[in-house]
Amino acid sequence: MLKREDFYSINQKTLERYYTNSKNRKRLYIYPELNAIVTARPSKTVRQYLYTEFRVNGSFLKRLLVRLYATVMLNSRGLLAAKSVVVHTDATKDTLIYPCNKKYRVFDFDKNEVSVIGKDGFPTIDLSREIEFRTHNHADFIPGLIRSSEQGYSEVIIDGCPVARTGERMTSLCDKAFAIWNEYIAPSVREIPAADYAKELHDQFQVLKNSLQELNKQVNDSQLDQLWEQLQNILQASQDNVPVGLSHGDLQAGNIWVENQTDKLYIIDWESWKNRSTWYDRALLYEGLRRTDGLEQYSTCRDLIHTTVLMEDIIFRMTELTTLPLDYGCAEFTAYINTLCGGTVHV
Q1: Which of these, 83, 89, 128, 322, is most buried using a 10 Å CB contact count?
Q2: Shortest CA distance to 52 belongs to which of 160, 167, 168?
């Protein structure tokens, strides 16, 4: 974020907008390497949460060094912080502010609540979609909302960690979460002729292209059009059906959490939900579609499943691009299309 945007200015404006009811002024300290904003003396609970969040897989020495680094930084009373910010706030030692890509998570461990708010200058459509999904979908694995508004929402802090941090247990926990998710979406799944689904996707593609042009998002249109035409022709020619139903849209090990005491699983971050093929979430969770190695695997295959997933992923990334301000995301999207075209120009 420090490279992509004027983070410190955005951070100041975001926190000033969030903390509007306090008369107290307090200095908070920013640790970019830990992605954390805290008071000078964060509580043991805050420190323990960050130790868990930044727990890494690997050798004992690597884990020890990461823990040591976090301990030194958080116990420096702000002396080792990259910067500080002064705002009207009632933040206490139990407060942890966690900047994300397009939103902020403000933890209050004393109340056991986390508030999620939009980042200043960024559209709030993702927050609205998250609230919409969680208002109308209720299950044990979907965290409930305490309250919500146009500004964001609040929820209970999950006493656990992402399954991405669970080492040898990660695969089995992902399998369990995927089985729970498949059972939940089963009533929504319907078989659609591939040619009909190709038309649905193409209509979405055209709308998004127009939106990017209106937003002056500079992407390689000719390369994108060539790739899309190749994929669309394959899907249109297929005589098979595509199973389409409710999709999470970002189902990966970092968005599946396991509760410490009970091993209960939660799936979080619902802003990308919509109807897609049932193949899409599987590709994200098991085949690393968002990683370079996984993407290259998909870019060199042209069967029905790979083609459908790639078309859905292009639409996902174009949608993401429309929710970022200025020219944010353009370079990454161009690199993504270049990667696909580098191995896929032959049909």
Answers
A1: 89
A2: 160
